[in-house]
Amino acid sequence: MKKIFSLILITILTVTSLTACASKKEDTSPTNADNHNTSQSVEIKGIVDLVPHSELINYVKDKLAAEGVIVNLVSTAADATTNGRTEAKEIDFNFFQHDPYLIEWNEVNGGHLVNAGDIHVEPISAYSDKYKTVDELPDKAKIAIPNDSTNEYRALRILEIAGLIKLDDEAATNLRASVSNVKEYLKPVELVELDSASIIPTKDDFDVFITNVNKAIESGITSTVLFKEGEDSPYANIIVVHKDLSADKRAAVDKLVKILQSEDTRNYILEHYKGQVIPAKLN
């Protein structure tokens, strides 16, 4: 009788022990944790330019995913419709423009888009395949500059900083200019206004050509940089959102901005682009 009672007791203890082990295994299952993280993640859709914008997003997207933010790039070719799609909340953010462009777009279109953060400067630069320094430039050197109002001002402004021309007060006030705003030529040079898309293909016709750095990077040119904008340029590329973006989406975009402005990302920009792209100056 004692033997039978002992066998029953051993069986009960064994079953209880196995049940407890199974319960512990189920409680510590990583699947439950994974499902919790997934339920808390927020997806933000964006349109960005290819270089360096999409490259910077791809650099930080894994870190963002770890914080519950999933970035979905709808396109890496921003165009004239991008702000309209952001205004309509078809996408949650865009990354291709600078503040002066955004301000003008809002004024013309009655938009409600805002700057969520300055990220980097693509310093418009003066290149040459014929000369290594500004001092080497001959009199009547031919200089190609972009003819759209914003980039033409930027081109003329760096020519002024380099000591080649002097702009009138109207240009500085409006941040827009054309050759007609050149008050004085401090060195006799010939300025040729061209559509920005045609400058690099025709660069051999000029002593100096001024263009946006993203175009130079995409074209793979190895021309000498004679001079360029600095980090304090008012033309920093920015993350743009609708001012009434939903709270969860805006919080996710703010995380994106924070990590793009982090010291790690800023160092990546400096090292990867070797001065062709530089981090924006943060206030």
Task: Explain this structure.
The chain is of the alpha/beta class and 283 residues long. The chain folds into two domains: 41-122 and 234-279, D-Maltodextrin-Binding Protein, domain 2 (3-Layer(aba) Sandwich); 125-228, D-Maltodextrin-Binding Protein, domain 2 (3-Layer(aba) Sandwich), CATH 3.40.190. Helix content is 45%, strand content 24%. A six-stranded mixed beta sheet has the order 2-1-3-12-4-13. A five-stranded mixed beta sheet has the order 9-6-10-5-11. A two-stranded antiparallel ribbon has the order 7-8. The longest helix is centred in the N-terminal third of the chain and has 26 residues, at 2-27.
Q: What would a concise description of this structure say?
A:
The chain is of the alpha/beta class. Helix content is 45%, strand content 24%. A six-stranded mixed beta sheet has the order 2-1-3-12-4-13.
Mean pLDDT: 87
Give a short account of the largest sheet: 6 strands, mixed
Helix content bin: 40-55%
CATH fold topology of the largest domain: D-Maltodextrin-Binding Protein, domain 2
Q: What is the CA-based Rg, rounded?
A: 28 Å
Q: What would CATH call the homologous superfamily of the largest domain?
A: Periplasmic binding protein-like II
Cα distance spanning the termini: 86 Å
Chart the SSEs and their pairings.
Layout (H helix, E strand, L loop, with lengths): L1 H26 L2 H11 L1 E7 L1 H17 L2 E7 L6 H6 L5 E6 H11 L3 E9 L3 E4 L12 E6 L2 H13 L3 E3 L1 H6 L7 E4 L3 E6 L1 H4 L8 E4 L1 H7 L4 E5 L8 E6 L4 H14 L2 H11 L4 E2 L4
Parallel strand pairs: 1-2, 1-3, 6-9, 6-10
Antiparallel strand pairs: 3-12, 4-12, 4-13, 5-10, 5-11, 7-8
Helix pairs in contact: 3-10
